[in-house]
Prior knowledge:
51% of the residues lie in helices and 4% in strands. The chain has ten helices and five strands. The protein has helices at 2-15, 35-49, 54-65, 86-91, 100-112, 114-131, 136-145, 153-177, 182-186, 194-204, and strands spanning 72-73, 78-79, 84-85, 227-228, 236-237. The longest helix has 25 residues, at 153-177.
Amino acid sequence: MQRIVLSILLLCSACVALPQVNFKNACVPLAQFSQAQKEVLLRSYLAGESNGFGLTLAAIAWKESCAGEYKMNFQDPSAGNFHAYIPGVINRYPKLKQNGFTQNMVGAMLVENDDFAAQIAIAELKYWHKEHNGNWKNIIKSYNKGYSWQKNPTANIQAEKYYQEVAWRVKQLEKYFVGKDLHKVALNLPKTTKTQKEYQKTKARKELDYYAYGEDSIQNDFKFLPIYQVGNEFAAPYMPKKTILKEFDLLELY
């Protein structure tokens, strides 16, 4: 009897097969990048250019997410084109509570809003630029391992490898971008998405009480994090609703 039951179970398990999933575990060469990946490289370059991090930011996007193909790393956890370390991003905001829900919200924002992810990455690079007096090699190593590579031999080996891989990508991107009028090419890119427009609109509104700013927020580069919290327990993208009393924004229309 037991054999019959076992046979039936095996038959049923064979009938209810799992869907096939084609996993990719490698980044294709630059020459095989899709149009979407090329756009990520270009947008990354343009985002970092004014701060002197154009090629650096594009190379990091290539290294970290294969130019937008793999935006999540649950081991760190990190997210976005440049794989910002999520707990580290939250730590920049004293009023944000470090919990699983807030991490999920910040991770989702890094994945969904490339402009926000670029701002976080640039601010991180600027911080390490100041810490290392412009030493590019040390900046890249610290972007990957923070301060730990200076104290831990294993972390230093990993950071050195990371630096070499980013440096190699910078050289490849120098050749890739040669002879291209990048700003002219950028004009042909798709226009800003609705989500990005809403983000920019929200950023322009100076309703500071809704935002999770620290006391020194005006002095840092993270002051435009589009998150608010109630009782330091809830976080969500802030999208203001239309109100009857525009001067006070008290009565919400539903």
